Amino acid sequence: MVRVGFIGLGSQGGPMARRIVEEGYPLTIWGRRPETIMPYADTAAIVVETPAEVGAASDLVGICVVADADVVDVLLRPDGVLAGMAPGGIVAIHSTVHPDICRRLAETAAGRGVRLVDAPVSGGGVAASEGRLLVMAGGDEAALTRCRPVFGTFGNPVIHLGELGSGQVAKALNNLVFTAQLALTLDTFAFADGLGVDRAALADVLMHGTGGSRATEILARSGFDTTGLEQAAALLRKDVDIALALAEAAGAPPPAVVAEVASTALTMLGHLR
After folding, report:
1. Cα gap 16→150, rounded to integer Å
2. 247's torsion region: left (phi>0), alpha (psi -120 to 50) or beta?
3. Which of 130, 146, 162 is the last residue of a domain?
4. Within this chain, do residues 43 and 144 fall inside the same structural domain, yes or no?
5. Closest C-alpha among 58, 120, 101, 65 to residue 83
6. Active-site entry in 19, 171, 182, 243
7. Which of 7, 19, 103, 250 to pair with 28, CA 20 to 30 A apart?
């Protein structure tokens, strides 16, 4: 059985790691803070002191930290994953980062005989715990084939988009559209208030009608509590910026309406604080 390592035990990565170990895979974990490790005391997961030890104990290491710099750090620091991982290993980047980061890391990993796939995810912690995250994968088909059974513990569907970095491109586009949907959703419910329409009833209509969206569903299921969206604003801004940077680098005009509405959504979320 594939030996799995995992780094990045936050609100989404934590449930992913738990699904892996509960499905019977040997799991090795590391975290910067003791509180991220404590929830695994009731599992068979092995806790180690450095990312290098995670690499040494694993055939496949999943990385689900927050930012580009965090991904680079846990992989390339002197006691990083690549310092300990044996040739033939695979690193899966579940974080949402710029595709160029994945490509540069892949070159470094290849020099050590390690392959890298990008596999960002979408759906949140609840979806992860229920095994229904969307996994958007890019990279070598043979490497992805080895990863699929592990990805399948927390993800369904697992979609191969193409060459390395294509999963990150798809994730950036997904979050660009989702961010635009947030603006439409917040504006629509505010408009409904002005018309005297009950928000909960309208949400029920939108969730069953053609005017609905995932953003509408998320906001309605939270009881119209925007706290989670406010907390996610910085991450959404990062993802929107990645999508626009990709457009500029490719010389492809960004989708004007979607980009403008997404920018409006980020402004609206900022004003909610």
Report:
1. 10
2. alpha
3. 162
4. yes
5. 58
6. 171
7. 103
pLDDT along the chain (273 residues), means of 10: 96 96 98 91 96 98 95 98 98 97 98 98 95 97 97 98 97 94 93 95 92 91 88 90 92 89 88 66
Cis peptide before 78 (omega within 30 of 0): no
Q: Are residues 145 and 175 located together in one domain of the fold?
A: no
Of 147, 162, 177, the last residue of a domain is: 162
90, 191: one domain: no
Say whether 171 is catalytic.
yes
Q: What is the DSSP letter of 86?
A: P
pLDDT at res. 200: 92
3-state secondary structure of 158: strand
Can you give the pLDDT at residue 268? 87
d(CA 105, CA 76): 9
Residue 51: its pLDDT value, please?
98
